[in-house]
Each structure stands twice: as structure tokens, then as C-alpha cells.
Design a protein that fits this description.
4-stranded antiparallel beta sheet, alpha+beta, about 35% strand, about 180 residues
């Protein structure tokens, strides 16, 4: 049995969960998310918790059991608490400026500033010129937006300049050795 799949998902107060023939909709103070459960996997409400079950020990069902539980749990956590992905900017003259909650402008070594617009449900916060916080209630969307920002100027291995996730270690290479 999947260790992750058999754990119940607690439903916090203020979160509404609607189960309708394989469709799961979660509504909370931060927003609304919905998904369709994979065929064979059932999500049932048992009091104030959600329980994910599988019909048998078939390989595909075992694989989808823990996945479905994690996705539903991320939906519940997202609409109640939300998710944050922090980025650091490293480099002389590299900085981010906020143009509102859904827009930032990056100066990362190009001849022009790079504007970034947040999709629906995601906001940006710039607590310092070299830090960006991507916030939202959809974990997948927050991670994708952070990855897209990082892709604008990936950390390079020689000086470590670029945009990286907070706490990310960049492996450094030795430069040319003098003769």
C-alpha cells in the first residue's frame, strides 16, 4: 500500500470540497481549484478528512494512488494557505523592480529590461532588489512561473551570476589556469 496514498487529507475550516463523479473541486479563501481523478482512483469524504483509495494492486493504480493524494492535498493547502517560491538574483547591476502585484521588470545583463507579467492567480513581491517572491494558490503554476523567470538568466557556472532559487547551490567551475 502506498504510504503517501493511504494518509488522509485534513480539510481546514473555510475550505469547501465538492466531489462529483470523479471531479474534485476545492474552494477556499485564496481561490478555487479543480481536477479530475484518474480512472479507478476514488476520493471520498469521511467527516472532515478526504480519503483516496485504489481498487487493486495493479501497477498503474499503485502509481496513481500516491500521485492523486498529493495533487488533492496540494489543492487543499493551496486554497487555504497558498504557495511561495523565492528567487535570488546574483550579479553586479542585476536587480528586479516591482511594477505592481502582477508585473516585475528585470535588469539582468541584457541591453534592455526584461518585463515579466504574472498569469491569473499568481502575484509577485520584491522585498529587496535582489529577491523575488512568486505567490499563488496553484502549486504547479507557481513553480512554472518561477522556472520561467529563472530561465531568463540561468546561473552560470563560472561566476555564479544569474537568477536562482533561494537556497540553490550552483556548482562552480574553475576558470582558465594561467601558464
Amino acid at each position: 500500500m502506498s504510504r503517501i496514498g493511504k494518509k488522509p487529507i485534513p480539510i481546514p475550516s473555510g475550505v469547501e470540497v465538492t466531489l462529483d463523479d470523479g471531479n474534485i473541486a476545492v474552494k477556499g479563501p485564496k481561490g478555487t481549484l479543480q481536477m479530475r481523478a484518474p480512472r479507478g482512483i476514488t476520493v471520498a469524504r469521511d467527516g472532515d478528512v478526504l480519503v483516496v483509495t485504489r481498487p487493486d494492486d495493479e501497477r498503474e493504480h499503485r502509481a496513481l494512488h500516491g500521485l492523486t493524494r498529493s495533487l488533492v492535498n496540494n489543492m487543499v493547502v493551496g486554497v487555504s494557505d497558498g504557495f511561495v517560491r523565492e528567487l535570488e538574483i546574483v550579479g553586479v547591476g542585476y536587480r528586479a523592480t516591482s511594477q505592481g502585484p502582477d508585473r516585475i521588470e528585470l535588469q539582468v545583463g541584457y541591453s534592455h529590461p526584461v518585463p515579466v507579467r504574472a498569469p491569473e492567480g499568481v502575484t509577485f513581491e520584491v522585498p529587496a532588489p535582489t529577491r523575488i517572491a512568486v505567490r499563488g494558490f496553484d502549486k504547479q503554476l507557481v513553480g512554472q512561473v518561477a522556472a520561467d523567470i529563472r530561465k531568463i538568466r540561468k546561473p552560470e557556472p563560472y561566476k555564479g551570476k544569474g537568477i536562482r532559487y533561494a537556497g540553490e547551490r550552483v556548482l562552480r567551475k574553475a576558470g582558465k589556469s594561467a601558464k
